[in-house]
Give the backbone structure.
Amino acid sequence: MWRDALLIAAKDLKIELRSKVTMNQILPFAFVVLIVFAFALDTSPGTLAKVAPGLFWLAVLFSSVFGVDRAVAIETNDSAGEGLLAYGVDPGGIFLGKVISVFVQLFLLEIFLLLGVVVLYGPKIGGLPLMAISAFFATLGLCAAGVTYSQLASASRAKQTLLPLLLVPVASPVLLAGTKAWQDAFSTAASLGDPWLRLLIVFAVVYLALGAIFFGSILEG
Amino acid sequence: MESKGYRWSRRAVGFVALLLVAATVVLGLWITPPDVVQGQLVRLIYVHPPVAWVAYLAYGVTSICSVLYLWKRTRNLKWDLLAASSAEVGVIFTGLTLITGSIWGRPAWGVWWTWDARLTTTALLFVLYLGYLALRRVPADNHQRAVRSAIAGLIAFIDVPIVHQSVVWWRTLHQSATVLNATLSPKIHGEMAMTLLLGFIAFTFVYVWMLMHRYQIADMEQSVLDVELEQLIEERQREPETYSDQTVLTQDVDQIDQPSKV
């Protein structure tokens, strides 16, 4: 399964390297979201710095919807996924491969986005270990839930509208816990025993397990 | 087709539900006294918690039916239809929970909405199952739709405790559980407690009655689809006598074989 997962991830990342959809479309979109948030809120530095973690994770959540949609669309277009199954590729491997590929792209996007947040909102960054580990598990959870739901919605002609409706409520704990973990990280009370980090770990583990169990049934169903 | 036994049991459940709701209305509006602190507002307690309970019960039933469909030994399309029917009733009751909660919240808290843990969870639950119902409307064959819906229903149910825990940590203002608290000792007494209990039973019967109705409709819709499909297959089977696919094919092949004049 792991071998299949790595093959699928490498294939998807190669497609991204050639097509550059995440870099050319999703990343600029995330930046636009950061800018328009400032229009909606008070632009004084204090306000934006205070809400920076929440806005960052909201931008990541929106971007993840596009990311997982794209990852699954690669296989659903021209029924490529059925071809993979016919070749005997493990469905759990396909799921994990998709998760790894979207995870790598989203994590890189988050690094660029964080730079944007620092420049535009000016928060006082701190607690880097907690920030990094919570971002790792938050992204993993988002990718696992996102790939599962994206595959569920893939049969729909209106998947662009169905996917956010399915994914955003499910992923709301990630948004909340990611925001709170980063707020804790920015404060002086940053510790790796943060309860929000535990919630992010639970979410990631639960959705990785659910995705690995059910992905085959969704593909074949 | 609906069996006679099913029809009569549905009617009996409906009749009992009507009687119990009527009894709850009489007890809740006229017999029970107003509360010392909340006054007449307390009467909403005979509706709001029972409605919320039914919403959770409905989603529980959806999850159980989803598991029964996913498990190959018990796989039957009836479980899928029951899961869908229960989710639909659940969404209606979740909506009612939000509405009755807001009606109570305005005079009690001074606002229609507050970012309390249970309110937020309920609102997310409402959207979560609206998504489930939207997913069900995606055109697919019966089995494909049933598998996808069952997985979505199950994941949604598993997500509920995670969502709830996250919003509980976020903030909690809501009144703590009155009857089902940790020690299981009700904090209200006498006829008020009896009326509340009656409300729970009455709305549970209403749920069962609505579920039976909705399931019946879903079953009939499925039967109509099956009949239509059979008719289409029959029509298609008769087609070769009128249409000659072979002739068209032969003509195409002839055209290909002929050398191009261009």
